[in-house]
Structures are given as structure tokens and as C-alpha cells.
Specification:
Elements (H helix, E strand, L loop, with lengths): L2 H7 L2 H5 L1 H11 L3 H29 L1 H47 L4 H7 L2 H53 L5 H43 L21 E9 L9 E9 L14 H8 L1
Antiparallel strand pairs: 1-2
Amino acid sequence: KTGKIKILLLKYYYIENHETWNLITRVTSRPGFQEALNNFFDLLQLIIQITGVWIILAMQIWWTSIVIVIISILLMIISIRSGQVLYDMDKKVTMLTRLMNYYASILTNRDAAAERTLFGYTDEIDKKFVQAHRERTDTNLKTITSRMLRTKISGLILIIFGVFMMIILLNHISTGEISAGMYISFVGTLMSVLNGFSWRIGSILQNFSGLKEYFKEFSKFMNLEEYLDISDFAQPHRKLDFEYLEFVNVSFKYPGTDKYVIKNLNLRLEKGNHYAIVGANGAGKTTLIKLIT
């Protein structure tokens, strides 16, 4: 099933629930599988480059290969933890973006113009929009800063390692174990690889770590309960003739949940009148419409 078909088959509870809808938004707005494939090939290419340098080092100075392994593991730990932190920040950004879009639709939607004039909530909603925008901006700034800081730390570790190897290899020139030409060639190759390694390994592993969290959420999304068939909720249209529709102390909660979406509702809708149902996102407007229809 594609994500769009899955959403169509989901039970109404998941559409009304804040956390579930944020999950759906994150999962369906990211090309996770294509991203994972691209990261795999990038990592494979980087491993081939590093392995070549590792073999040459092992042939000349055996213990340097062990140092490379240790440094690689250290960088992997830093990058993986960074990826988890960044994905959590992305989750917050997704939630704030959805909230901003909701406020923006209230402020700009022509269908809500009459409501804005009637209830005079424009200033209050505008304040909430600005607050959500500032919070999202701060979170994005923290995400960028965190990513750059971890990249710089990884780069610094590799620079120290590169300088250390240059000094060690100089000693091998003096003992005649390697020639000056080999030294220059090897150092040039080493620094070229480390220069790319410093930012590529961090970016690739951060993405892999984030993708790991993504696929966890994708699994949750695919396991959300759905209607067995779309026809389960497609009822034939019937023309009803009535003078009024009345709710008397009506309460409703979705199966398997403890929270009431609607509780002790008393409502009377007269024939021939027009009504507007307004409320915060997740307040139960859609649920009420489903109960009516």
C-alpha cells in the first residue's frame, strides 16, 4: 500500500489525534527508501576509499591500521548519536510547521473571513502563529548548530590524526624505510581522503541514524489500524426529512481509547438554518460531523 492509500483507510481516531497525525505527516513527507539507497551507495564508496588507505598503512606501519579503526568507531558513535538528536529536532519542526500552517489557514482562508470578523480572533491567532514561527526558527537554528558542531569535532579529530601520521612517516624517511616520493604521494592521498572523510562520514552516518528512526516510525504508521475495506465507511446517500436534529448529553470516544473526543454535548440544529462549527485543531469538529452524518 502506498502512503496515500494507507491514509484513506485509517480509522478516524488517527486523523483526530495530534500525535498520530504528526507521525503521518513526518512519514509521508520524506522519501525514506530512496534516501536510504543513496546513503548506502555513498557509504560503500567511502568504505572503498578508506580501505585502500588502510591497506597501504597496514603494509608500512601495522599499528596505524588499528588507530584508523579506533578513530572510525569514535566518529561513528558521534555521528549516530548526532543523527538521533537531529531526527528528534526534525520531529519538533514538523509539528511546529503543521501548527503554523493551521494558523495561517485560519488567518488567510477566505472561507473563514466571516468567522474572523464575527469572533474577532485574528490578533490572538496571529500571536500564536508568530510564537510557533519563532520556536520553529530557534529549533532549526539549534539543528544547524548541532550538525556543524559535530562535523567540526569530527574534522578536528581527523586533522590531529593526519598531522600525527605525517610526523610518524617523517621518521620512517629518516630510517630509509620509505622514500621521499612515497612520503609525498602517501601524505597527499591521506589528506585528500581525510578531507572528504571529515564531513562525508558524519553526514552519511547521521542520515543513516535518522533513517533508522524514520523506519521505526514508518513501521508504526503501517501498523495503524484501518478499515478492512474502504466500503466499510462508504454509506449510500439518503435524503432525510426532519425539522431539527438534537444531541442530548452525547459523549463519544474512539474504540480502544480512554479520552473522550466529545463529552456531555447538548446541541440542537434547526431545519433551514446555517451553522458554523469552529474550534482548535483536534477539538472534535470532524468527529461531530461524522456523528451527524
